[in-house]
């Protein structure tokens, strides 16, 4: 596992040298998964080894070893069917709740694997979930972390990241270019950016977990929100490996969801293009997937085409309604960025792409508790005097 390979042209390169192929496409680890079989939970010490059996359950196909600390807690997230959010005559929806990761998003998977392999200072270009994840994992191992945030990052977000005591830089100038800058300059800091090969390797474990939960069967489809295309690449990598290992009766289709206000991958899909081009995005409530020029966009598009899936744009209204539905009907609080996944399932079911016999796993990528709804829904809040509490409650439950 010391080699990277290009999904597109097949060129290889030693791990640690470049994150991109000469052809311009991103590289990923050249893992040979053909020998992989589902680990036996009762193997070895006679039971689940708590804290080692989350994503490290798949250590044989990961380019890292568990480094201890918080990285032991990444992955192993719940997957459950949620009939209350299934559309009539639609598919069975299984929610993969990534908000239960230690810092509240799937980013911990990539960070855990990255920090398990790398020595010395780590960094990232992010002001959101990735920044929080890298700062926390570095703190757990007493490593230095360099976090580059955009100038307009709200103070509340900065404070959340700052509690882990990283080196935080608020950067003036074109933030979008920083990703490339960190690839070009050797700063003595290993940058775990959105689609870095180590991150993609860690993030593939979400699809290993989903498929293992269905084994020896498999879900018909996996639906996820997409921004840089890093996680979508990881899911595709996992399905390729599991298919090569003979563990999938049929390869699940990959469906990607974007906010209509910033949907470069969906546009390329609709046009039938082979490459994703940058767009002029508009502001959207889907802040974690607002990426007008996704570095792994073309690879994500290839994943969709190879598995016979689709890329769906979700309107702002549908996304916000879905965020409320997931919280009120399934009890799962998510960011609007995640709600595009089940909103896309709804859209695809209405278009006849899924039927009642289909099992669809929707990845809810991050918790809604961190950034929170901005105000409480008025219908659920009542002002009441202490003496009136018994009557007020009886009125509701009777
Ligand atoms: C980062 C993030 C995404 C997008 O993942 P990519 O790998 O960049 O495509 C989706 N949802 C949430 C909550 C995120 O934090
Ligand atoms: Zn290439």
Description of the structure:
It is a single chain. The chain has 398 residues and is of the alpha/beta class. Among the domains are: 74-103 and 199-364, 3-Layer(aba) Sandwich (Rossmann fold), CATH 3.40.50; 119-191, Rossmann fold (3-Layer(aba) Sandwich). It has twelve helices and 13 strands. The chain has helices at 107-117, 129-140, 155-162, 178-184, 197-203, 205-214, 230-244, 264-271, 297-307, 316-330, 336-350, 389-397, and strands at residues 3-6, 12-14, 27-29, 79-81, 92-97, 122-125, 145-150, 167-171, 190-191, 221-225, 253-259, 310-314, 359-364. Strands 4-5-13-10-11-12 form a six-stranded mixed β-sheet, with helices on both faces. β6 (122-125), α2 and β7 form a beta-alpha-beta unit. α7 (230-244) runs parallel beside α9. Bound molecules: pyridoxal-5'-phosphate and zinc ion (ZN).
Say how many strands there are.
Answer: 13
Residue share in helices?
25-40%
Oligomeric description of these chains: single chain
**SS-derived structural category:** alpha/beta
The CATH topology name of the domain at 74-103 and 199-364 reads Rossmann fold
Number of helices: 12
CATH architecture of the domain at 74-103 and 199-364: 3-Layer(aba) Sandwich
The bound ligands are: pyridoxal-5'-phosphate, zinc ion
Strand coverage percent = 5-15%
Mean pLDDT: 92
| Shape, per Cα inertia axes | globular
What pattern of helices and strands is seen along the backbone? EEEEEHEHEHEHEHHEHEHHEHHEH
Ends: how far apart?
62 Å
**Biggest sheet: strands side by side, in what order?**
4-5-13-10-11-12
Q: What about the largest sheet?
A: 6 strands, mixed
CATH class of the domain at 74-103 and 199-364: Alpha Beta
Please mark out the parts with pLDDT under 50 across 5 or more consecutive residues, or reply none: none
């Amino acid at each position: 596992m010391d080699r990277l390979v290009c999904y597109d042209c097949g060129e290889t390169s030693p791990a640690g040298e470049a994150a991109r192929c000469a052809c311009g496409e991103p590289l990923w680890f050249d893992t040979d998964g053909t020998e992989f079989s589902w680990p036996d939970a009762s193997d070895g010490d006679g039971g689940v080894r708590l804290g080692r059996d989350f994503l490290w359950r798949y250590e044989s196909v990961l380019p890292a070893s568990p480094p201890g600390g918080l990285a032991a807690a990444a992955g192993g997230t719940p997957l459950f069917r949620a009939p209350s959010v299934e559309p009539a005559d639609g598919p069975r929806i299984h929610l993969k709740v990534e908000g239960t990761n230690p810092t509240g998003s799937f980013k911990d998977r990539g960070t855990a694997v990255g920090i398990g392999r790398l020595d010395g200072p780590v960094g990232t270009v992010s002001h959101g979930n990735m920044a929080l994840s890298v700062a926390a994992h570095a703190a757990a191992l007493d490593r230095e972390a360099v976090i580059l945030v955009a100038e307009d990052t709200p103070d509340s977000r900065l404070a959340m990241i700052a509690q882990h005591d990283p080196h935080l830089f608020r950067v003036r100038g074109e933030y979008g270019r920083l990703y490339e800058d960190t690839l070009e300059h050797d700063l003595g800091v290993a940058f775990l950016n959105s689609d870095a090969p180590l991150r993609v390797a860690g993030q593939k474990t979400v699809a290993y977990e989903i498929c293992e939960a269905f084994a020896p069967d498999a879900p018909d489809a996996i639906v996820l929100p997409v921004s840089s295309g890093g996680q979508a690449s990881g899911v595709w990598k996992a399905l390729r490996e599991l298919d090569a290992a003979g563990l999938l009766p049929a390869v699940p289709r990959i469906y990607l969801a974007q906010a209509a206000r910033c949907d470069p991958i969906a546009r390329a899909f609709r046009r039938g293009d082979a490459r994703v081009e940058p767009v002029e995005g508009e502001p959207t409530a889907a802040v974690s997937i607002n990426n007008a020029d996704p570095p792994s966009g073309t690879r994500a598009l290839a994943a969709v085409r190879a598995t016979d899936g689709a890329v769906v744009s979700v309107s702002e209204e549908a996304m916000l309604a879905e965020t409320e539905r997931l919280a009120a009907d399934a009890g799962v609080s998510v960011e609007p960025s995640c709600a595009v996944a089940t909103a896309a399932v709804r859209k695809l079911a209405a278009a006849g792409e899924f039927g009642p016999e289909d099992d669809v796993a929707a990845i809810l990528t991050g918790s809604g508790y961190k950034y929170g709804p901005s105000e409480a829904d008025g219908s659920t809040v009542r002002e009441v005097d202490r003496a009136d509490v018994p009557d007020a409650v009886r009125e509701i439950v009777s």
